[in-house]
User: Fold this.
Amino acid sequence: MAKLLVIEDEPNLRFAIRQTLVKAGHDVAEAETLAAARTLVREHNYDLILTDVMLGLDNGLDLLQELRADGFEGVAVVMTAHASIEAAVAAMRQGADDYLQKPLSMEELKLQVQRWLEQRRMASRLRLYERLERARDHEQELLGSSQAWKHALAIAERLAHVPIHHPTDAAGDGLPTILLLGETGVGKGVLARYIHACASSTVRKGDTPPFVHVNCAAIPSNLVEGELFGHERGAFTDAKDPRPGLFELADGGTIFLDEIGEMPLELQSKLLLVVEKGVFRRVGGTRERRVAARVIAASNQDLTARCAQGAFRRDLFYRLSAFTLTLPPLRDRQGDAVEIARAMLPRLARRYGRAPLTLSDSSTRAIAAHNWPGNVRELVNAMQRAAMLSTTDIVEPHDLGLAAAPPDPSEGSPTADHAGSDLRFDFTRGTHTAEAVERILMIQALEFTRGNVSKAAKLIGMQRSSFRYRIERYNLENHVKEFSRS
Assistant:
């Protein structure tokens, strides 16, 4: 039940409005003067305020300005007997969302209030979702100075300046699209927001283009179409009022289609139409609607393979992949894991009310040595765990859920010195790659431990997870089986 406030100094009209809205199922309060209205808004939170402009010697727009200045996020509508384009523009500038011209049609008023409230619910949900997304993305800021990451950011900045052609433009060739690929947790959502921020940097101050994040894997398949494109009244049993979709909310800004590979096949043709023509229809609607927005899609899947399997439309893939950016995994961003961890630790300590925390040398080595299969997201979780659970101000590897890494060979260990003196390479016969040497070392360690992965990893000073990853990378599974049987 929505909570409404009606401000009108004409008693009969005020009574008629209140009765109409109460019968529609709303909780309605009324005020005859601005003084009475100010008292009510101090005591209650309203979803919608409907006010006359002229209230004796007072002006209802003055109250709207005050409410907006205090952070009121509900719907504000003005009623006036002197409606004009100029009056409407003036009302909008002073905080109104819409206006109604007197004399009022009570039936139209009831429908309009339902529409305004539905739009408010959608906007509130979007604001909440964006706050949650920003909170999550804040932990994965654009930290890192590796060449791989800098290269990705440079490409993102260039892609951000591809213009959005409005669908009505004759020169328009559809909506601009960007496809972000990469493993889970590499920061595709962070980079999508970065692209949006770069594109928005040239927008006039005060105009904030929307950023709409859609997780295609999280929406039930039977609801995806309605969420993306909206629905008309009567489109299905519970569709009592029309509702805009996420594409409409993204108009003029960016819509981020995360996990695009999970989108139902039957909806991909409709998405293709939006991307190519900038047009769509609401569920249950017959009228084409137009949208101008930047489309950023992301996936951790091999979309080419999905196309071969018939699970993803090739024409949609080709359209989305016009500009493709593959994000590097954290293990390929030399030094970034330690840099990110060091940057995060102070702010996490403040969040959890801790004294300043620092990483021990052993933790720094462990972070650098870990393979991070979950990428930045896994690192964020490890740092949060350490900030909450470490019992001292020095974060050790066990606080991070990591095993201690071996000492740095540069510090001088007998094993390293011995290997350095006995292991020689003949470069007169050609090159010797680090990967080839590492593969041979792993095979010999597995042979020595009879296929015991944990012991082999410890023997050569490597994390078990990193060792297991390299077994797959170097195709050593047969060696593990062979040595375990010997």
